[in-house]
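Model it.
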Amino acid sequence: MNPVRIGNFFVGDGYPCFIVAEIGINHNGEVETAMRLIDAAVFAGCNAVKFQKRTVDIVYSQEELNKPRENPFGMTNGDLKRGLEFGQKEYEEINKYCKEKGILWFASCWDESSVDFINNFNPPCYKIASASLTDDGLLRYHRKTGKPIILSTGMSDLPMINHAVEVLGGGELVIAHCTSTYPSKSEELNLQCIKTLKRKFKGVPIGYSGHEAGLATTVAATVLGACMAERHITLDRSMWGSDQAASVEPQGMRILVQNIREIEKAIGDGKIKIYDSEIPIMKKLRRK
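Modeled.
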């Protein structure tokens, strides 16, 4: 397998799991909340945080934007979508803050203009959201940046994923197994797909993007071979917002990272051996 370099980290078998805290839209349109979430990700020991970027009038039809939807920003879906969207000033603050805190940041871009916008900040990689996996034009546009790409596979079957990989090419690519429900049921996580993807796309690092309520299944994903793990992060799961309930609070994210790191130490190399620390016990307890 050829590892993918993201910032100063290598993503691939044999390297520490690359752990991403997805801030997404859990900042609720407030840059101060975004910075508190960055702090939480640093506290947890994550390697990177991820945001979402959309050009609202391109991604959504006017009909969709006009739909009634009561929210903190107004009475329509358009009010909500525009209220959650950060602009140049906010991302300049985020970029500066992440550099100060020593954590990588990047984004899922839902349209070509958003790719151009985020590219001005020289991100270490891009994430293709599950909803965009079948958008060949957007995939090709991402590839033109020359940046590594993480491809999320929610709402997709194997032929769809195979086509997306053909469009993107196998180089500088990480595929993240995903189920796009919020929160996801354990019986629909299908973690064995990590092994399926590893067999199908030899040489491509396989990761996991989870939306479940607990932590154990994400740890299990790394045991099954996921070399990247992404979970949404929130300050409080009871906060307003569509993704909060499928997110992990700061202390939970810290526990998740610690558990993954402990698993990495415990996995070993598979070679049966007697450890030096066992010899005194062996001499004491064995009769022959």
